[in-house]
Design goal:
Blueprint: H1 5-23, H2 32-45, E1 49-54, E2 58-64, E3 76-82, H3 109-126, E4 132-138, H4 146-152, H5 155-158, E5 163-170, E6 178-179, E7 183-186, E8 188-197, E9 201-202, H6 212-222, H7 224-230, E10 237-246, E11 252-253, E12 256-265, H8 268-288, E13 292-299, E14 304-306, H9 308-322, E15 327-328, H10 340-346, E16 349-355, H11 374-388
Parallel strand pairs: 3-4, 3-5, 5-16, 6-15
Antiparallel strand pairs: 1-2, 2-4, 6-16, 7-14, 8-12, 8-13, 9-11, 10-12
Helix pairs in contact: 1-3, 1-11, 2-3, 3-11, 6-8, 9-11
The protein binds zinc ion (2 copies).
């Protein structure tokens, strides 16, 4: 398989970086040590520019190819890795396990950051391309909209980024394989908090109360009508009520109930439909029982939607690295969210899954990134740059 020889040579060194980051996880925007580690490595490699503090703690490194000029007349492609970990206590027992209880790299962002650093080292050595690479290391992917923070900080214009590419490891896909699809590959993950205010009283006298538990229980069922009866059956929508808070003891009907949950969709139309119907059902059901209801609906990131032409490039590059039989070009979308979605709204690009083998799932305390993935990831990044930035 045409993994680049140099990428294979780099594996041991990049694994060391990966394990160092794994031992020292940081959360959301508080990735100061990780960002400092990244900037230090980029300095060692001799990249042309290093910008820190983009989107609070993001880092961008710039490498110009042999044919590039300083005035950025040539094309620039952005390669993005995320740096943050999760609030979780690791149970792998590995020698490089997290040293901090309650913090863990359970999504493999340690692997993403290290692979992009490996590619940076290679590209800074060889510069076998005509154009510019922007290496994007972002904070706060896990629910903090770090990608948006970097965009709002002017990253795309400041570095003249024309296209953006992202990569995520995926347990369940064998090491040495890639998977991607055109259009929506990851969902828009929205969340809601519904408060139903009734009238409390004695549990033996329900007729003197407005029972928010009774209304809330119906609501849990009724919301499923959106998936079953409102959304186009060929469009995906997941609505899950994940928390139901009400009451204190056996003989009291409480004043209020609070329901929390999430909505996952793969198109903006279905997303709008789901939000509107949730509002109508909540208000309608509460009104039918004489209760008051309020809903706090929060849209996190958009659908991660791959652009057609850039997805074709990604498929071609992945095929070049591992062969056509090891690239699934029409993988089922994931209903998890990914804030690279903001970058794909801002610039054309593509987000690809790279196999992480038979490990525990993402966000599981037994998960670990597989260091055997490293040469595949580096080869993909390097070939993407060299092939997208040829004359
Ligand atoms: Zn994650
Ligand atoms: Zn992730």
């Amino acid at each position: 398989m045409p993994i680049l020889n140099r990428a294979a040579e780099l594996q041991a060194e990049v694994s060391d970086w990966r394990r160092h980051l794994h031992e020292n996880p940081e959360i959301l925007y508080d990735v100061d040590d990780t960002a400092a580690f990244v900037a230090e490595k980029l300095r060692e490699f001799g990249v042309d520019e290093i910008a820190t503090g983009i989107g609070r703690t993001g880092v961008v490194g710039i490498i110009r190819g042999k044919g590039a000029t300083d005035d950025r007349a040539t094309r620039t492609i952005g390669l993005r890795a995320d740096m943050d970990a999760l609030p979780l206590t690791e149970i792998t027992g590995k020698p490089w396990a997290s040293k901090t209880p309650g913090k863990m790299h359970a999504c493999g962002h340690d692997g993403h950051t290290s692979m992009l650093l490996g590619a940076a080292k290679y590209l800074a050595e060889t510069r076998n391309f005509n154009g510019t690479v922007a290496l994007i290391f972002q904070p706060a992917e896990e629910g903090g909209a770090g990608a948006l923070a970097m965009i709002d900080d002017g990253m795309m214009d400041r570095f003249g980024i024309d296209e953006v590419y992202g990569m995520h490891n995926m347990p369940g896909i064998p090491v040495g394989q890639f998977a991607i699809r055109k259009g929506g590959i990851m969902a828009a993950p929205d969340r809601f908090t519904i408060t139903i205010k009734g009238r409390g009283g004695h549990a033996a006298q329900p007729h003197r109360t407005i029972d928010p538990i009774f209304i809330g229980a119906q609501l849990v069922g009724s919301l499923q009508a959106i998936a079953a009866r409102n959304a186009d059956p060929v469009q995906s929508v997941v609505i899950s009520v994940t928390k139901f808070d009400a009451g204190t003891t056996h003989n009291i009907i409480p004043e209020k109930a609070t329901l929390l949950g999430t909505v996952r969709t793969l198109s903006e139309d279905t997303r709008d439909l789901a939000e509107n119907r949730i509002r109508q059902i909540v208000e309608g059901l509460a009104a039918a029982h004489g209760a008051e209801a309020s809903i706090d609906y929060y849209r996190q990131c958009p659908v991660t939607s791959n652009h057609d032409a850039e997805t074709d490039h990604a498929i071609r590059i992945a095929t070049d690295v591992v062969g056509a039989a090891s690239v699934d070009a029409n993988v089922d979308p994931s209903m998890a969210g990914e804030d690279f979605a903001f970058m794909l709204k801002s610039r054309p690009g593509a987000f690809i899954f790279i196999g992480n083998g038979a490990t525990a799932g993402l966000h599981n305390p037994a998960y670990d990134f597989d260091d055997e993935v490293i040469p595949f990831g580096i080869s993909y990044w390097v070939k993407l740059v060299e092939q997208r930035l040829t004359d």
